[in-house]
Automatic annotation (TrEMBL):
<feature type="transmembrane region" description="Helical">
    <location>
        <begin position="211"/>
        <end position="232"/>
    </location>
</feature>
<protein>
    <submittedName>
        <fullName>(thale cress) hypothetical protein</fullName>
    </submittedName>
</protein>
<dbReference type="GO" id="GO:0003676">
    <property type="term" value="F:nucleic acid binding"/>
</dbReference>
<dbReference type="InterPro" id="IPR001222">
    <property type="entry name" value="Znf_TFIIS"/>
</dbReference>
<keyword id="KW-1133">Transmembrane helix</keyword>
<keyword id="KW-0863">Zinc-finger</keyword>
<keyword id="KW-0812">Transmembrane</keyword>
<feature type="domain" description="TLC">
    <location>
        <begin position="114"/>
        <end position="320"/>
    </location>
</feature>
<dbReference type="GO" id="GO:0016020">
    <property type="term" value="C:membrane"/>
</dbReference>
<dbReference type="Pfam" id="PF03798">
    <property type="entry name" value="TRAM_LAG1_CLN8"/>
</dbReference>
<keyword id="KW-0862">Zinc</keyword>
<dbReference type="GO" id="GO:0008270">
    <property type="term" value="F:zinc ion binding"/>
</dbReference>
<keyword id="KW-0479">Metal-binding</keyword>
<dbReference type="InterPro" id="IPR040327">
    <property type="entry name" value="At5g14285-like"/>
</dbReference>
<feature type="transmembrane region" description="Helical">
    <location>
        <begin position="290"/>
        <end position="309"/>
    </location>
</feature>
<dbReference type="Pfam" id="PF01096">
    <property type="entry name" value="Zn_ribbon_TFIIS"/>
</dbReference>
<feature type="transmembrane region" description="Helical">
    <location>
        <begin position="253"/>
        <end position="270"/>
    </location>
</feature>
Length: 326
């Protein structure tokens, strides 16, 4: 490992990456590009600075947080990360200055780097969710229907544009997960399944967008709240404002999510299943298409209900625990 210069051995407050001294005035995080004033690190222990890639490679930890075989072999300590509360830290012991001095133990959280890639996904979702709700609502309100429950009506140009917009988002976010978060199988499968439903409706069938846009509105209505809730959750342990926002937002967000995903979603799905099951779409929407749509949508709704139920249980448990210690 090539030594660059003597500097303070400090880590980034945001992602935990080792800082690199760029000049006598400041040090920079090579991962998230945040900087620290050199005066802030005076009187700290001096060590040789290496790049984030070097230290992570030597520790066996990928820059983007995915676990490697080398990391699995590193010793672990049952100590929670101060930033993300991950229950374990990996550590390595090495001499950082000279052979006649003691060794230093360095702790690294294998989970922290995930927060930036997940946060980037939340940012993309913010630019899709609310606009998709507005576009889908406009498409449904401005498209004349002989029957408001006609889930087999031909896709209009406006409806097709909404499907194209959403497919573009899910494609980009899917690529993001495949590159940076390949172990997040639930999100990857969710995006693949969603793309399948939208793509078959848009290109293979050409009918049925009416019902899918109704479900898209319900699914994305909670998007803004959910993304803010998620992002503040990443920083709640080291930013007081994030913790307060998370605490205030959690109950109304869970309630809104429960009503939209847990009540309204199943009602629309039931209407679709009744319509298609009655044979009203025969000859227009193939049986394989609407059956597969119902399976994918039903499973997605079930996962959403289980997710919000788990969050409700965690919220009640935390509230009860805090009351006991007051």
């Amino acid at each position: 490992m090539e030594k660059s210069r003597e500097s303070e051995f400090l880590f980034c407050n945001l992602c935990g990456t080792m800082l690199v001294l760029k000049s006598t005035k400041y040090a920079e995080c090579p991962h998230c590009k945040t900087t620290r004033n050199a005066k802030d690190i005076i009187d700290k222990e001096i060590a040789y600075t290496v790049s984030a890639e070097d230290i992570r490679r030597e520790l066996g930890i990928s820059l983007f947080g995915e676990k490697t075989q080398a990391e699995a072999e590193l010793p672990k300590i049952k100590k929670a990360c101060e930033k993300c509360q991950h229950p374990e830290l990996v550590y390595t012991t090495r001499q950082t200055r000279s052979a006649d001095e003691g060794q230093t133990t360095y702790y690294t959280c294998p989970n922290c780097a995930h927060r930036f890639t997940e946060g980037a996904s939340c940012l993309m979702s913010l630019f899709h969710g609310t606009p998709a709700v507005i576009m889908a609502s406009h498409a449904l309100l401005t498209t004349p229907r002989a029957d408001v429950h006609s889930f087999a009506s031909p896709n209009t140009a406006v409806e097709s544009n909404v499907l194209d917009f959403s497919m573009a988002y899910f494609t980009v976010d899917l690529l993001h997960y495949l590159i940076f978060l390949p172990n997040d199988f639930i999100f990857i499968l969710h995006h693949i399944a969603t793309l399948y439903v939208f793509a078959t409706c848009r290109f293979a069938v050409g009918h049925g967008a009416h019902g899918l846009l109704l479900l898209l509105i319900l699914a994305e209505a909670t998007s803004a709240c959910q993304n803010v809730w998620t992002i503040t959750g990443y920083r709640k342990n080291d930013v007081a404002l994030a913790r307060r926002v998370r605490e205030l937002l959690s109950p109304p967000f869970y309630l809104f999510y429960t009503v939209v995903r847990g009540l309204a979603g199943p009602v629309v799905l039931y209407d679709m299943a009744t319509f298609y099951g009655s044979g009203a779409a025969d000859g227009v929407v193939p049986r394989w298409a609407w059956l597969s749509w119902l399976v994918v949508i039903g499973f997605a709704i079930l996962v959403s209900i289980l997710w919000v139920l788990r969050n409700w249980l965690d919220w009640f448990r935390e509230n009860n625990s805090s009351k006991k210690y007051k």
